[in-house]
Amino acid sequence: MKIIITGAYGIGTYLARLLSRNKDDLTIIDEDEDRLAKIGSDYDLLTVHGSPTSVKTLKEAGTGSADLFIALTPSEDENINSCIIAHALKAKKTVAQVNHAEYMEPAVHQMYMELGVDELIYPEILAARDIINGLKMSWVRQRWDVHGGALVMLGIKLRENCGVLNRPLREICGPTDPYHIVAIKRGNDTIIPGGNDELECFDLAYFMTTRDYVPYVRKIVGKETYVDVKDVMFMGGGVTAVRALQSLPKYMDAKVIEIDPDRCEELNQILDSNTLVIHGDARDISQLTDEGIRNTQAFVALTGSSEANILACLTAKRLGVRKTVAMIENIDYVSMAESLDIGTIINKKAIAASRIYQLMLDAEVMNVTFLMSVNADVAEFIPKEGSKITKKPVKDLKLPASITIGGIVRNGEGMLVSGNTKIEAGDSVVVFCHDLNLKNIEKLFN
């Protein structure tokens, strides 16, 4: 596959890192030679120095034969214009990053599709969705829903009171049990578990279950004492915070602490009455205490500084807040934040790159999420009639050891998978794939 990316910035660089696993024909266009030199030395790709909206530059990069053209510069106007030009040059599919929610309105989106922009990516909306999912379940690090929750994947940090520690998985999650363990993060290692593996204290375990059995999973992992989030405090009133606050469930009340007084005035105009806007510095422990941090169930740090967000979440945990969410844009800090037990980590680069990565796959894929914590992809495939995966029971498919089928949705009903399960065409199949290119397994579904 021939892929062209414009903009060697955060999302473009992270996406290049993901795509470098595929051995595709990858080209990056940017106007800054220093950025190109850095990305060119880190990954196996071609670089082209020039303007993303220059017809000459796009032709030089081979846009006319591109399977996927992705515009990821900070300028949404530049991204849209370059996609329109790429479409005119016969690129097969175009994707543009935008910075305003109005582009995602169906009528506006349709208009740009007619102009040649096939997909629009707005990272703030994608990040807000993950933040809200994290807040809805205070005892979960990460949640991923299939078909509106017919199947649910839960990433859970296990503590001493977990009732299923130190027992072989074949004893605690067999074919008749209502959950499966699809992956375990232990220290720096990712384990795709077999029946003889055991859960250990401080593991980050990924459970696949159905909607009705989420309370059961909560009970067996010892998280029933975690109170549900009703009061949440945000640090930073930027665009991501606004999108999250506007999507907050009605039963939650929020406070947002913003250091810029002018931004506070804007927030008061934008946000509804469920949100109290406070001018101040959320790094100030005395102010946090005065604003009721000890009676708050969740703390969300969304400033532009990864370091400040990490430190603020550590402070909130020390003051008794169990659920913390930190936006960490510096990829190098993610592992450190995990080792510090920060909680839910939001990285817009990874979230947006996952959505774009989905567009590369030839099989019918409904959703793709890249889990930074375990270096794994979770994808929802829909097998075609006569595809290889529908011809034998799961136990006879001889799947690679790094792949787990977590479950399927058939006729709207979520089902866990055993070795005897036979997948049918049209099922939604949840595949957990560690350290392996998804394109290597999509052939099973075509």
Automatic annotation (TrEMBL):
It holds the Pfam family TrkA_N. InterPro entries: K_uptake_TrkA (IPR006036), NAD(P)-bd_dom_sf (IPR036291), RCK_C (IPR006037), RCK_C_sf (IPR036721), RCK_N (IPR003148), Trk_Ktr_HKT_K-transport (IPR050721). Transmembrane segments: none annotated. Residues 141-223, 366-446 form the RCK C-terminal domain. The gene is trkA. GO terms for cellular component: plasma membrane. The keyword Plastid does not apply. One of its GO terms (molecular function) is potassium ion transmembrane transporter activity. Residues 1-121, 229-346 form the RCK N-terminal domain. NCBIfam families: PRK09496.2-6 (NF007038), PRK09496.3-2 (NF007039). Keywords: Ion transport, NAD, Potassium, Potassium transport, Transport. PROSITE patterns: RCK_C, RCK_N. SUPFAM superfamilies: NAD(P)-binding Rossmann-fold domains, TrkA C-terminal domain-like. This is Trk system potassium uptake protein TrkA. The lineage of its organism: Bacteria, Pseudomonadati, Bacteroidota, Bacteroidia, Bacteroidales. The keyword Ion transport applies.
